[in-house]
Specification:
It is a single chain. The protein is an alpha+beta fold. The protein has four helices and seven strands; from the N terminus they run H-E-H-E-E-E-E-H-H-E-E. Strands 1-5-2 form a three-stranded antiparallel β-sheet. The protein has a two-stranded antiparallel ribbon with strand order 3-4. A two-stranded antiparallel ribbon has the order 6-7. Strand 6 and strand 7 form a beta hairpin. It starts with 7 loop residues before the first helix and ends in a 9-residue tail after the last strand.
């Protein structure tokens, strides 16, 4: 079966999804100094798929602007959702994409807010938090 050729846009999206998946697997915050990665991270940050900090842009002698370093602080819920959708849509291309189980953290004091004997049901005047 011939391999599908991708447009430039589709290729950029695929590279961005693979980069997003790699940051999902890393211990965060994680630093990147690669100009290609930083370019993709700017797009992922603008789309709300990651939260990142970028060094201020500097102007090279050629007049070109560059960013020396980016620090990815978090892969957002939207980012994880985009990874799941991308994996469903392109399983053959993203089969090497890592999968990590979501971690659930119960906020402190959540157990005391539940109604007695009714896990997940909040007491009077309280909103239940399933996390």
């Amino acid at each position: 079966m011939p391999r599908k050729t991708f447009t430039e846009r589709e290729t950029r999206v695929l590279v961005s999804m693979k980069l997003l998946a790699s940051f999902w697997q890393r211990c965060l915050p994680a630093e990147s100094t690669s100009s290609d990665e930083i370019e993709h991270l700017l797009g992922l940050d603008a789309a709300g798929l990651v939260k990142a900090r970028f060094d201020p842009p500097t102007r090279k002698r050629t007049g070109e602007l560059s960013i020396a370093r980016a620090v990815v602080l978090e892969v957002t819920a939207e980012g994880l959702s985009a990874l799941v959708r991308a994996r469903r849509q392109q399983p053959s291309l993203l089969e090497d994409m890592p999968v990590r189980k979501a971690r659930r953290v119960r906020p402190s004091g959540a157990a005391t807010d539940e109604a007695p004997g009714q896990p997940g049901l909040a007491g009077p005047g309280k909103i239940s938090n399933p996390w």
